[in-house]
Design a protein that fits this description.
The protein is of the alpha/beta class. It is built from 14 helices and 12 strands. Helix 6 links the parallel strand 5 and strand 6. It is globular, with a radius of gyration of 20 Å. It binds uridine-diphosphate-N-acetylglucosamine (UD1) and 5-amino-5-deoxy-1-O-phosphono-D-mannitol (M6R).
Length: about 375
């Protein structure tokens, strides 16, 4: 079943152009006589009005599914105008945090069976919120227990480390944002640009997968390290968290995703000539802020690996002091789908080089059905 690949994680990383195509199939519409571009989410069409009118949207999940929701949060807020808050499922339940009838609670889960997420679902339901599922598994407990939802249709994911489900989850939640904004004339140009880039996404992911050899070389350089920091912000704060989660869970190397805006509030103290740091600085509204983060890290002789948009390397570091991971450009809200791919590849190669089990990392289970 692994075909030409050595591991499921590797296969699932390389499958992403296809899994994204399946996620999008029948849901994004372009052309026809009216030349209209729109999104159809069959499972939500009768509920969009209710979601638009809700007081807030609460994204709830664990691990990678939480990170995917975090990546989609800005575009959901932008296009729906509804405030979005984030909850790690266990923390919502621990706090018995406030959930109201006027809330839309969105449960994100690849397996649809995660105990903490299920418990949060029961909790939100008992408080009267509209409960929406974003799941990969048809017939799973979360798919059945939610009032409505969307299947991400990424195909079965076997590796314990979630890869293709992450990119498909972001794609679906971005489509949710487009569907919620569908009634707004003022955002039409923005929405159409996103839809256009959706159609290019599989080929752009194919392009970024060509960094495989480069990521193997980088893994070779980093394999003996104790720790790896990843800085991101805006749409790519999630990329930093998710990249670090992959590195720690499969390569068993300490890694921390850090919001770049928090750098001076503590993490900067860690920076020296030895600690490797990846900075995600692809082209979006936060670019100039990331440029200044890079300058400040360089001033402290940080060992930098900069992820940037193709062609931007000279404007970020001309001295030759940084390594670069150059990725293709897409609309800002879709960029996290591209940017995670090199980090998935890096985590994969680090794991193989360090001699650890790729598909079944120490102490972990694919779906966490107990608390
Ligand atoms: C559905 C069919 C798909 C078919 C398409 C044709 C299923 C599972 N999907 O896809 O095979 O090609 O119509 O139009 O039969 N739901 C939840 N919670 C979740 C996920 C989904 O309640 O977490 C519900 C949805 O509200 C919906 C149903 O499950 O009622 C199916 O969802 P989804 O597969 O996303 O719908 P379509 O994309 O329309
Ligand atoms: O099946 P779920 O999406 O609910 O799983 C949530 C987490 O357990 C999961 O994403 C976990 O963090 C992965 N092993 C990460 O790769």
């Amino acid at each position: 079943k692994k075909g030409k690949y050595d591991h499921y994680m590797q296969k699932e990383i390389h499958e992403q152009p296809d899994s994204l195509t399946t996620t999008m199939r029948g849901r994004l519409i372009r052309g026809g006589e009216s030349k209209m571009k729109s999104v159809v989410l069959g499972g939500l069409k009768d509920h969009l009005r209710t979601i638009r009118r809700s007081r807030r949207i609460v994204f709830i999940g664990c691990g990678t599914s939480y990170n995917a929701a975090l990546a989609a949060r800005p575009i959901v807020e932008e296009l729906s105008g509804v405030p979005v808050t984030m909850e790690l499922a266990s923390d919502l339940v621990d706090r018995q945090g406030p959930i109201y009838r006027e809330d839309t609670a969105v449960f994100v889960s690849q397996s649809g069976e995660t105990a903490d997420t299920l418990q949060a679902l029961e909790y939100a339901k008992s408080h009267g919120a509209l409960c929406v599922g974003i799941t990969n598994t048809v017939g799973s407990a979360i798919a059945r227990g939610t009032h409505c939802g969307v299947h991400i249709n990424a195909g079965c994911e076997i590796g314990v480390a979630s890869t293709k489900a992450y990119t498909s989850q972001i794609a679906v939640m971005t489509m949710l944002a487009l569907a919620l904004g569908d009634d707004s004339i003022s955002s039409r140009i923005r929405r159409e640009a996103i839809i256009d880039d959706f159609f290019d996404l599989p080929s752009k992911v194919r392009e970024v997968l060509k960094l495989d050899i480069e990521m193997k070389e980088l893994a070779n350089l980093l394999m003996e390290e104790q720790s790896l920091l990843i800085f991101g912000r805006g749409y790519n704060y999630a990329t930093a968290l998710e990249g670090a989660l992959k590195v720690k869970e499969v390569a068993l190397m300490h890694s921390e995703g850090i919001l770049a805006g928090e750098m001076k509030h503590g993490p900067l103290a860690l920076v020296d000539e030895t600690l490797p740091i990846i900075v995600v600085a692809t082209c979006d509204a936060t670019f100039s802020k990331q440029q200044s983060v890079i300058q400040q890290l360089k001033a402290r002789k940080g060992r930098l690996i900069v992820m940037c948009t193709k062609g931007d390397a000279p404007s970020l570091c001309s001295s030759g002091a940084c390594r670069f991971i150059e990725v293709p450009h897409v609309e800002d809200c879709l960029q996290p789908i591209i940017n995670i791919v090199p980090l998935q590849l890096l985590a994969y190669h680090l794991t193989v080089l360090r001699g650890y089990n790729v598909d079944q990392p120490r102490n972990l289970a694919k779906s966490v059905t107990t608390q």
